[in-house]
Amino acid sequence: MITWMQRHKKYLVVTIWISTIAFVGAGFVGWGSYNFSSSANSIATVNETEISMEDLNKEYSRLYSYYNQLTNNKFTKEMAEQFKLQDQAVNNLLTKAKMIEFAKEIGLSVIDSEIGQKIGSMEVFFENGQFSKEKYLTVLKNAGYKPKSFEDGLKEEILIEKLQALFDIKNTQTELNTLHASLYIKDRVELKVINSQDVNYTPTEDEIKKFWESNQMNYLSKPKFVLKYKIIDLNSYSYNENELSSFYEENKFNYKNSDGKIKTFDEVKELVIKDIKLKIAKKDALKQYLELKKDELKDITDITLDSDDLKFGMDFINSLNTINKNDVIKPVEVENGYIIAKLVDKVAPKPFTFDEAKESVKQDLMLKYKKDKISELAKVEVNSFKGTDIGFVSREDASKIELLSQIDAAEFLQKLFESKTKNGFVILNDKAVIYKILEQKLLDYNESEIDKEFISQNVQNLKDNLSNKGLLNFINNRYETELHYQKGN
User: Fold this and answer.
1) Burial zone of 325 (CB within 10 Å; 0-12 exposed, 13-18 middle, 19+ buried)
2) What is the model's pTM?
3) pLDDT for 347-402, tens place per residue?
4) How many domains is the chain partitioned into structurally?
5) Do 53 and 43 meet the contact criterion of CB atoms below 8 Å apart?
6) Which of 172, 197, 265, 367 gives 20 to 30 Å between its CA and that of 20?
């Protein structure tokens, strides 16, 4: 998920705008500081629009809440730092300000009745099935919003919605037919499978050694971390019922169902218990972290971990990869609490001796020889083979190819429909699949098995991405931006 977000974050502000509406109950998530080169209240100026520190705090909080929901409440501050959430919050605000400037320039506006209508339709403010002003004010207060601030933010979002609506170009039948043709073509295919198991080969000692000498750097020991560490266990902390109830009331906006409604205390009691213990444990973990930095901590354990040992989780390994010898990592959440650790040493990978690597080298050499051999055989047979006619198949028909496992069949079909040749072959892990396309047909657009909504949505997404990219490029070049901050430590 994080990889996907990193790949798509450039257009995130446009395609999945983080709404004041959606995250009104998210609250503020604490984060690092910024140093300002001008006004302490302004982080940037776009044209004549000032972006305030309060705007930045709220945008960061909304982004954090969004990603936390995407990852089923597993998004951590370490992940936020890795994803550079602070910078993304700034970039989002800059893009938002530019979109607002452009919307105003072309004459778009929002009147008070539109804001009122929007607020009146939000179920988060409903009481007994209808809007309640008292609940409206209570929800905003609990979320840290003043009505004026919330309504100003809502006005900006409605303005942006109007701007984006101008670029909402409806799909044409030609566009639908074009994507349909690329997705719903069927090929009648003749196949022959050449398995590597059918190739007999046992390398000699000299062949294995020669292969190892040419590829020694592929056979290394794993990097290791030599550590002193301590687990701060959740189960060592207690609480009373009053503390538990108060904690729930202060944080109940973090406990929502899939419809965005807050769960009752009884529904989430076990999770609340874990969260309050985590809060207590983290406070203690930070205290012990400082003691470990001063070499004053007792009851610590020595351990040597391989770099891919996940007994303490991926976040812990990622943290170790970012520090140097004798550094101490801040508390990292693990399954039942927090871990703190001092990196005593990093042991670099070392080449295995021939005897240590021999068996792995032998297996790799056999695999390479057999893959090369089946590729040679496939090239010889591709234009003259006699195989099995499997009938018509589409991209989605992996289960219909009995000659292959479903995983291999899916990979084969993907490469088949990417190919531009009538005859060819595909090399999979341990086999070559020779194919000949005997016939092609295109499913009629009106056939029931075609998911018209899927086609329409994909065409619309493609057009939206192109128009969003064009809009961003245009406004980035049109409006001057002046930054007033430098990232803090």
Assistant:
1) exposed
2) 0.49
3) 999 999 999 999 999 999 999 999 999 999 999 999 999 999 999 998 888 999 99
4) 3
5) yes
6) 265
